[in-house]
Design brief:
This protein has about 450 residues and is mostly beta strands. It contains no helices and 61 strands.
Length: about 450
């Protein structure tokens, strides 16, 4: 059955009801009706105009293909069942949702603007590409396993994108949404996506989510927030005004990520987190704050309120920690601090408690705040402090209790080079020329 090139106006109920096996409706204008098309067969609707439809403008209970249609000022715009295609349609000012689909649909190159509900309300496993949702309640709401490519969600009253588990986002953009830019369930995948100007968190996802080359900026909450076992690669969180750059739970990993000029921490994580080649700069609180058994390697923490903070069993190696307004590296028990550079931090360069290995670090100019600050401070016992190079600090080696071993360190130009409590095993202190022990500490 085919209907083409006409107009229907002013019906108190359905303007058109079709219950045939196949149908085609094209280039028809519908206006001032309670319903427009109520269809039961498989069909195609193309190049039609719908305006001032009081309830559902287009409703299909079976597979439909809807293309190049304009729907304006309707109750609900387009409502199609599973397996349908909606392409190149524009839905404006619906009282409820703009476009609603069942599962396993394809929605491409569509725009939903100023609808009273969701711009797009989508079922499971829907493929969405090139779509725009602007000034709706929620931009995109989708079920499990849906995929989004090159979509934009801007200025929505709640979330920009809100999806269930196992959804994928590629090259999507969320701008100026009132809650989260992106909100997803478990096992979400984000690639080349950006969230900017959200009044909530930029990216919010459940456990086992992955983020590749994504950016969160100018959010009023955290830039990124994710559950356990999530992974971040080449991501940037900057200028988020109400929270942290990145916030995750345990077993997260970060590779080549950057957090800068966030109001709170650059990175805030819990236990067993790994950081490789990451940077935290100019954040309002700690650059890196992490939990037990975490590792940081080849990272930069500079110009934050403090540099790196960790609890027990943390390893920090090959990092540069400089010009922070508090401490450089502050850890608790059973930690390793190896081959790092600390420089010009206001408080201690490196501070530990019990049973730590502090080896091969270069500490220069820390303790700029004055008072009793140490390049390396150990408050507890069973610490090994070996082969560090220390210069121009208030206190070079500053040990406040006994039971530690101190050897083969070189110290120069400190107010007090060695401020070490009694009861420690300390290699002889003197010049290189007079040293007779291979375990000697050198001051010069």
């Amino acid at each position: 059955m085919g209907v083409a090139n006409g107009s229907i106006h002013g019906f108190g109920f359905d303007a058109m009801q079709l219950d045939c096996r196949t149908y085609r409706v094209e280039k028809v204008t519908f206006s001032n009706c309670l319903h427009w098309l109520n269809a039961g067969g498989q069909g195609i609707v193309s190049d039609c105009l719908f305006w001032e439809i009081g309830n559902n403008a287009l409703r299909s209970v079976s597979v439909a293909h809807v293309e190049r249609c304009l729907l304006w000022d309707c109750g609900t715009g387009i409502l199609v069942s599973g397996g349908s295609v909606v392409a190149k349609c524009l839905v404006l000012s619906s009282t409820h949702a703009g476009i609603i689909t069942g599962p396993s649909c394809v929605v491409r190159d569509c725009t939903a603007v100023a609808n009273g509900g969701e711009g797009f309300a989508l079922g499971d496993r829907v493929l969405v590409s090139g779509c725009v949702a602007e000034n709706n309640q929620i931009g995109f709401l989708a079920g499990e396993g849906s995929e989004f490519d090159a979509c934009v969600s801007e200025g929505n009253a709640n979330e920009g994108f809100w999806t269930a588990d196992s959804c994928t986002f590629r090259a999507c953009l969320a701008i100026g949404n009132q809650l989260q830019g992106f909100r997803a369930g478990w096992s979400a995948s984000f690639e080349n996506c950006t969230s900017s100007g959200s009044n909530g968190t930029g990216f919010y996802a459940g456990q086992k989510s992955t983020f590749l080359n994504c950016r969160a900026t100018l959010s009023a909450g955290n830039g990124f927030e994710a559950g356990p076992l999530s992974a971040f690669t080449d991501c940037v969180a900057s200028e988020n005004s109400g929270g942290n750059g990145f916030a995750t739970l345990e077993n997260a990993s970060f590779t080549r990520c950057r957090a800068s000029t966030n109001a709170n921490r650059g990175f805030q994580t819990t236990s067993r987190t790994s950081f490789t080649d990451c940077q935290a700069t100019n954040n309002g609180s700690i650059g890196f704050e992490t939990g037990d058994q975490s590792t940081l390697s080849n990272c930069l923490a500079a110009h934050n309120a403090a540099g790196i903070s960790g609890t027990d069993g943390v390893t920090v190696s090959g990092c540069t920690v400089s010009n922070n307004n508090g401490w450089g590296i502050a850890l608790n028990n059973g930690c390793r601090v190896v081959n790092n550079l600390t420089r010009n931090n206001s408080l201690d360069g490196i501070s530990v408690n019990y049973s730590c290995d502090i080896t091969g670090n270069n500490c220069n100019g820390d303790g700029t705040a004055g008072g009793n600050q140490g390049a390396i401070r150990a408050a507890g016992q069973a610490n090994r402090i070996d082969q560090n190079n220390i210069s121009y600090v208030d206190r070079g080696l500053y040990l406040t209790s006994g039971g530690n071993v101190v050897m083969r360190n070189s110290v120069k130009g400190c107010t007090v080079n060695f401020d070490i409590a009694g009861g420690n095993d300390v290699g002889p202190i003197g010049s290189v020329s007079s040293a007779t022990s291979p375990w000697a500490n050198i001051q010069y």
